[in-house]
Amino acid sequence: MAKMKRLYAVCKICNKQLTIEVSEDIAKDREYYPFEYIDIHGDPEHALMLFLDQNLAVREAIAYRDLNIVKQKGQQYKDLIRMSETDSFASIYADPIRLQLFMRLTEGPLTEDDLIEILSKNEGFIEDEFNMILLPLIKLGLVKTSWLQESFQMGYFLIKDFMVLRIPTKLTSNIFSKDDRFKPYSEMFLKSLNESFANYAQRFLAGDAARIKETRLALEVRSQLEFLRIFNLLWNGPRTFKELELTGEDDIKHLQELIERGVITEIKTKTDIYYALLTDIIIRKFTPKYLINAITQKLENKEITREMALNHLDFLFEADAK
After folding, report:
1. Domains of the chain
2. What is the pLDDT of residue 203?
3. Which of 29, 91, 22, 87 lies closest to 57 in space, CA to CA?
4. How far is CA 81 from CA 87, 104, 291, in A?
5. Which of 282, 280, 265, 281 is nearest to 193 (CA)?
6. Which residue has the higher pLDDT, 278 or 36?
7. What is residue 275's predicted lDDT score, i.e. its pLDDT?
8. Does 10 score more than 80 pLDDT?
9. Which band of pLDDT confidence, cut at 50, 70 and 90, is reported for residue 154?
């Protein structure tokens, strides 16, 4: 007989902590973590969707009054949960409403009512899909929720922020500096590399709108298959067009887009044209300590309660310790 484990989670609809027993076997051989577990309870019945890690620790819990929403949106939820980490980051910048939610949380904690009021100003916002919009942020460990006893609603707290950075590809740089075939063209490569980063820095520092666009484009390169395929082919060194084995106008278009974005450069040798990767794109999560001053200021201005402020500071401390 399988061993049972007790899970503890707060249901905001019941306004209490629940004890839920599950088999320890349910965490085995999952395709992804955290995975979803739905507990139906209450009168009238409603659902609590738990996100469990491989040790059956509750990462987050989302409550639904309408069971039909859970059924109707089930496949969409599964698609969001199964997304790779890179795809999840990309989904934040690909969806204007999700990006707005994320950006507002970089200014300090908000209640669910606050967030829904803010997002409701968007024509395409559907309140029933609020949790679906939030899901990638929870899955990535960027946002934590907590039931607020004083106001009897859910609070949302940013506990991790992230940066998307472009850095020189070491392998390609080493090939042009050490490989006899490409050493004669190292100066050409370095010139392209310097131009690419100068343009990148100029765009990144041109203001919030330009920085958001640059981040979105970088995440597209690392997540969209049509770009990722070319990116991966060039990861191990320069390739000719023939070696890339690109077929069709779409492939050529995507290659040209990567050149225009400064991710790839063309190197003309005596015998052929090579395509070389200029930059790698990395994602770095960090604890948003900048929020400490924002939390203090909002508490002093009575924009948030003492409970919200203390919860957020505790969450930031825990996140920084991991």
Report:
1. 4-161 (1.10.10.10), 164-284 (1.10.10)
2. 87
3. 22
4. 10, 23, 28
5. 265
6. 278
7. 96
8. yes
9. confident
Query: How far apart (Å, rounded) are the C-alpha atoms in residues 267 and 182?
Result: 9
Question: Which DSSP helix (H) or strand (E) runs through 144?
Answer: strand 143-148
Strand 264-268, strand 273-277: pairing: antiparallel
The Cα–Cα gap between 198 and 188 comes to 16
d(CA 281, CA 136): 20
For residue 270, CA distances in Å to 11, 265, 274 come to: 68, 16, 11
The Cβ of residue 284 has, within 10 Å, a number of other Cβ atoms equal to 9
Q: Where is 221: in which H helix or E strand?
A: helix 208-223
Residue 109: count of CB within 10 angstroms of its CB: 26
112-119 helix and 96-105 helix, angle to the nearest 10 degrees: 140
Cα–Cα distance measured from residue 121 to residue 39, given in angstroms and rounded to the nearest whole number: 32
Residue 212's closest CA among 128, 51, 90?
Answer: 90
Phi, psi of 120 (to 5 degrees): -65, -15
Residue-wise pLDDT tens digits, 218-255:
999 999 988 988 999 999 999 999 998 887 788 889 99
Q: What are residue 153's DSSP bridge partners?
A: 148
CA distances from 121 to 101, 124, 134, 138, 141 (A): 12, 9, 17, 23, 26
Beta bridge mates, 162:
285
d(CA 126, CA 210) in angstroms, rounded, equals 28
pLDDT at 66 over 90: no
- Enter the tokens of residue 54: 């491989």
- The residue behind tokens 């003309």 is 268
Contact 271, 277 (CB under 8 A): no
